[in-house]
Amino acid sequence: MTFEPYITHATIEARIQELGRDIVRDCAGTSPLFVCVLNGAFPFASDLFRACEELDAEIAFIRLQSYSGTSSTGEVKQVLGLTDKIEGRTVIVVEDIVDTGTTIENLVNHLQEGHPADIKIATLLFKPEALVKPVNPDYVGFSIPKKFIIGFGLDINKKGRNLKDIYVLKED
Ligand code: IMP
Ligand code: MG
């Protein structure tokens, strides 16, 4: 398996600053709760949260798992739940990637039960061609084709999350 460079760290960083500005503009006057979906979203959430320092924001973490190797299992397991009260609040779900949309749809449905005022989805990467659920992310870092990528939080069998850049699996 070979991976080749795809999105540089500088490009990722610049894009996250832009997303931060969009969120600050859209969420002005609210006290949003960022919900970082572990494990993959942690580098993105870290940078995005700090790109929103003008907001009176909080962050919480939730852990889900739906992948095994390079293909979706279609099954979403919730490993670590959310303890924060979200009633009446703006919740910003922070994901590394929306692929089939199964994970995010499941999570949004679960969060709705807590009666938030609003749920927004911020994802670093989005594969529109892979989408099978009616999911429409509010903030997208990069829309990419249906290819397998690693780096900047994204893994292959738990490896590659610490890469600063994003790499794509070479298909031959
Ligand atoms: P979905 O439920 O099919 O949308 O998949 C979402 C989850 O699958 C993400 O949170 C990732 O953990 C994982 N995933 C999807 N595509 C990739 C990829 O290209 N590389 C690494 N992980 C991926
Ligand atoms: Mg993930």
The overall pLDDT, averaged over residues, is 92
Residue fraction in strands: 35-45%
SS class: alpha/beta
Distance between the ends: 10 Å
Number of domains: 1
Short summary:
This protein is an alpha/beta fold and 172 residues long. Helix content is 22%, strand content 35%. It has one domain (10-147): Rossmann fold.
Describe this structure in words.
- The structure is a single chain.
- The protein is an alpha/beta fold.
- The protein has a single domain, classed as Rossmann fold.
- Helices cover 22% and strands 35% of the residues.
- It has three helices and nine strands; from the N terminus they run βαβαβββαββββ.
- It has helices at 9-26, 42-50, 102-112; strands at 3-7, 33-38, 58-68, 71-80, 90-98, 118-126, 139-143, 149-150, 166-169.
- A six-stranded mixed beta sheet has the order 4-3-2-5-6-7, with helices on both faces.
- A hairpin with a 2-residue loop joins strand 3 (58-68) and strand 4 (71-80).
- Helix 1 packs across helix 2 (42-50).
- The radius of gyration is 15 Å and the shape is globular.
- It starts with a strand and ends with a strand.
- The mean pLDDT is 92.
- The structure holds inosinic acid and magnesium ion (MG).
- Residues 37, 40, 96 line the site of magnesium ion.
